Amino acid sequence: MIRVYCDSLGLVLESGGAARRPFGALTFDELFSAADPEALVRGAWEDGVPSMLRKDLVAPIGSQEIWAAGVTYLRSRSARMEESKAAGGGDFYDRVYSAERPELFFKGTPHRVAGPGMQVRIRKDSKWNVPEPELTLAINRHGKIFGYTVGNDMSSRDIEGENPLYLPQAKVYDRSTGLGPCLLVTGEALTPETAIELEIRREEETAFSGITRINQIKRGFAELVEFLFRDNSFPNGAYLMTGTGIVPPDSLILRSGDEIRITIEPIGTLVNTVE
């Protein structure tokens, strides 16, 4: 497996503690458009020039769209139902959890993404905002999963709970997506025991921490990708967030200055602060 980072100088590859820069230009768009992205990265690694990882990392994205799957974990189903009932809504979240068709929604474009170390945002017209830590699939233009990254699906729970038709406003706005710190390119699936960990730090103390594992997800990744690519094309590939199994208590509401740390090994830790 090779980790692909991006900094102000371009892409840099890391494996086994060593880093190399591709000999010649290599972009995320080329990677996501390739029929065999893993082979392309391996070749770039073998021909690469020894380098070092810089600190000015940016999100591992070119022109890819970001999509997301909802209500894929039982814990997420319960939380969404609680939000809906509190606002007088129906049982649609319960129904989508058990339905054949998954919930898939558009999450963002590259300019709405916050990379490692950058600030994510909370909506000014929302009073209840939370992070949603999610394993995120890298999918090439042919619908093949070739890698993984860490995603933060920032969400306005009060807006989403008020009415399901408000979902785009609860999910899609400037810097509503955290992505990084790198793209892990591998031909092997992550083990079912792979952990997703969330820590929210406030004033140098832990305000909340939680952990889940990807074996808690109800739907298979291939199933989610198949539905995403139905009657839909992605010339430069796409990222797909796979849902969250960690839901902070209702008393936990993000504030300006909070630090959000999401760890998924072997990818790494994505760190963002709230603007």
Strand proportion, as a percent range, falls in: 35-45%
Work out the radius of gyration.
Answer: 18 Å
Give the helix tally: 7
CATH fold assignment of the largest domain: Fumarylacetoacetate hydrolase, domain 2
- Whole-Å distance between the termini? 34 Å
Indicate how many domains the architecture comprises: 2
**Helix share, percent:** 10-25%
What is the second-level CATH architecture of the largest domain? Alpha-Beta Complex
Topology order in helix (H) and strand (E) letters: EEEHHEEHHEEEEEEEHHEEEHEEE
Oligomer: single chain
Under the CATH scheme, which class of the largest domain? Answer: Alpha Beta
Number of strands: 18
What class, by secondary structure content?
alpha+beta
What does this structure look like?
- There is one protein chain.
- With 275 residues, the protein is an alpha+beta fold.
- The protein folds into two domains: 2-50, no CATH class; 65-274, Fumarylacetoacetase-like, C-terminal domain (Fumarylacetoacetate hydrolase, domain 2, Alpha-Beta Complex).
- 20% of the residues lie in helices and 35% in strands.
- It has seven helices and 18 strands.
- The strands form three sheets. Strands 1, 2, 3, 4, 5, 6, 7, 10, 11, 13 and 16 form an eleven-stranded mixed sheet that branches.
- β14 (195-202) and β15 (205-213) form a beta hairpin.
- α3 packs antiparallel against α4 (92-98).
- It starts with a strand and ends with a strand.
